[in-house]
Amino acid sequence: MRLPIKLPKPRNLMPRGLFGRAVLIIMLPILLLQGASTYIFFDRHWTRMTERLAYAVAGEVAAVSDQIEGAPKDKDTIEILKALMATHLDMLFTYSPKIKNETLLTDAGDGPGLTDTLSRAIVDQVRRPFMVNVDMDHKKIDVFVQLRDGLLQVSMPQRRMYDSSGYIFVLWLNGLALTFFLISLFFMRNQIRPIRRLAVAAERFGKGINVQAFKPTGAREVRRATEAFFNMKERITRTVQQRTAMLGGISHDLRTPLTRMKLQLEMMGKNPDTVALREDIDDMEAMVEGYLAFMRGEGDESAQALDVVPILQRLALNTQRQGFPVIMNTPASLILEIRPNALERALTNFVENARKYATRTEITLWADDHNGWAGLTIDDDGPGIEPANYEDVFKPFFRLEGSRSKKTGGLGLGMAIAQDIILSHGGRVLLDRAPIGGLRVVIHLPL
Ligand SMILES: Nc1ncnc2c1ncn2[C@@H]1O[C@H](COP(=O)(O)OP(=O)(O)OP(=O)(O)O)[C@@H](O)[C@H]1O
Ligand SMILES: [Mg+2]
Fold it and tell me: Which residue ranges form the domains of the chain, and what is each CATH number?
């Protein structure tokens, strides 16, 4: 049967960090072992030990009782008995003739405690009304026994019944376990440090921050992962550098002949052929510009902690100067780890699109400390993009059918470049429908 209410998911009690988990993994067996051995020790050894001692004590009390009841009650017999008991059995007794105590017991409880254990032994062996009084403060045990014609009080030190070596044993056991646990914590910390260092390095590299290689330390697997990470980082860095250098070379080398061709066309005068050629050359120039922009995005700029709000304000101001309304909605400041020129290029590309395809735009900046992300939303009121095309528009040179007009121009590189830049900051770009009608671009950047 299904429950009418939804039960809350049980909270995952497993610690999240590796250190916490490792501690749990070492500690749990130790605790269980400790618990089990303490239980077994007390249940088996301790209880039985106490029982034996109780039987010995009860036997001696029974012997005194029999002796007094059987002997002629003159002072001497009792004094001799007293001396014997004191020297050999560590017990003192007083005998008060003609006294009867009606409150004494004939039954014993069945608990595991000292009083009950001793009471049971007395019921078994002395077989007279009795009372046991354990005085923990003075480490003394008194046993009262009702004899036929008087009351017997036997006093003995607690050590007759109680063996402190058991407690000492348990204390040692737990103390040693705790000491070893603390020592292993120390070593565990040292094992986890290199993993944490690797995680930080990988995180920083993911955000596009340059990380210095460090000497791999720790366990073999961690060293291997660290080495592999730095090899991978080297390869990625080299690939990016090569691509950047190649693009720079191509763009630069193409520009010179293009300029020459343009000059030659100027001299040839205007006719339909030269006009078409001229248009092609313009397109090629725009493409070269695009490549150069792409290259700049991946340039040598290094990441730094900077306030993004002034960057946004500058961007908005520049766009407004060109007669395009931009509404800003930002906090006073927001510090992020960024490469400022690259980020500005990415944002410009998105705002440019809004300017080309819409009549106004709204930029909202927000930060969510809780999730560790900062967000930028760029909304416009243009025609927007069909969700089916959300992925394609990020591909280089992809332009939607409606945009293939000369009026909006463009190569279809803007979004690809912008996404590349955001990804290299460890961020992501999502598309959505804007509340004001057109496209919403959501940029997430790690805080
Ligand atoms: N705000 C927008 N509203 C509607 N369509 C858009 C918007 N932004 C982008 N698009 C569509 O996505 C396509 C790809 O955009 P992208 O910025 O990559 O290229 P482009 O703007 O055409 O050219 P470039 O940016 O290289 O000059 C555009 O051609 C257009 O069809
Ligand atoms: Mg564009």
Answer: 18-163 (3.30.450), 202-299 (1.10.287.130), 301-446 (3.30.565.10)
